[in-house]
Design goal:
mainly beta
């Protein structure tokens, strides 16, 4: 019996000895808190080293991570009408969604020329989700709908796909997903003006270049 107990003790000590280095290797992440209000701070975006969000009073504020200073994006009165959410800011264009208690629409404010551009207008639900290289992607529909790309330079929009949700854009590529029972991912090449087809599984024949 004493031999068995000794064997058990040795086994337990061996297990603890093996687990100890693993426990000590746990990664620690340093974070810092930016806002300290008891109310909702929301719709966070980032441009280079500056973080932006909408404070409880509907004012867009920024935090410079290098200088550790907070400031309002607009020094004087904020020139945005029916602001609902901010989507992106590249240092010149602030892309945001509007809500007038009836409909959702998309706008882009030019902070250089101080001009507010209405990308969409009228009754309905149109929601921008990303912005890059002066192009905005948005969905016309609630949750899922027609996916458009809007070029600020040409002031023209282009229909990319239907039944799309949460589109993202980077350079010449747009990606999104559709709910066809499996939430498939789709992609489009703006330069070649065609869908990107996987070498493993090609897209359904119903999807044609636009």
């Amino acid at each position: 019996m004493k031999i068995k107990i000794a064997v058990i003790c040795i086994s337990l000590l061996t297990i603890f000895a093996i687990k100890a280095p693993i426990a000590s290797a746990i990664t620690k992440v340093d974070t810092f808190r930016i806002t300290f209000t008891s109310q909702s701070e929301k719709w966070t975006i980032i441009n280079k080293n500056i973080i932006y969000w909408i404070d409880p009073e509907g004012i867009i504020r920024g935090f410079d991570t290098k200088r550790k200073k907070e400031f309002p994006l607009f020094k004087n009165e904020q020139p945005l009408n029916d602001l609902y959410s901010i989507i992106s800011y590249d240092g010149r264009y602030l892309v945001y969604n509007r809500y007038d208690n009836i409909s959702y629409n998309v706008s882009a404010y030019d902070t250089v020329k101080k001009v507010d551009l209405k990308v969409t207008d009228g009754a309905g639900s149109r929601f921008a989700t990303d912005f890059d290289d002066n192009k905005i992607v948005y969905v016309d529909g609630y949750g899922y709908g027609d996916l458009y790309v809007y070029d600020i330079d040409t002031k023209k929009k282009k229909l990319i796909a239907q039944n799309a949700s949460v589109p993202k854009i980077s350079g010449r590529y747009i990606v999104w997903y559709i709910n066809n029972g499996s939430y498939d991912i789709r992609a489009y090449d703006l330069k070649k003006r065609r869908w990107l087809i996987s070498q493993i599984q090609k897209l359904p024949a119903v999807l044609h270049p636009i």
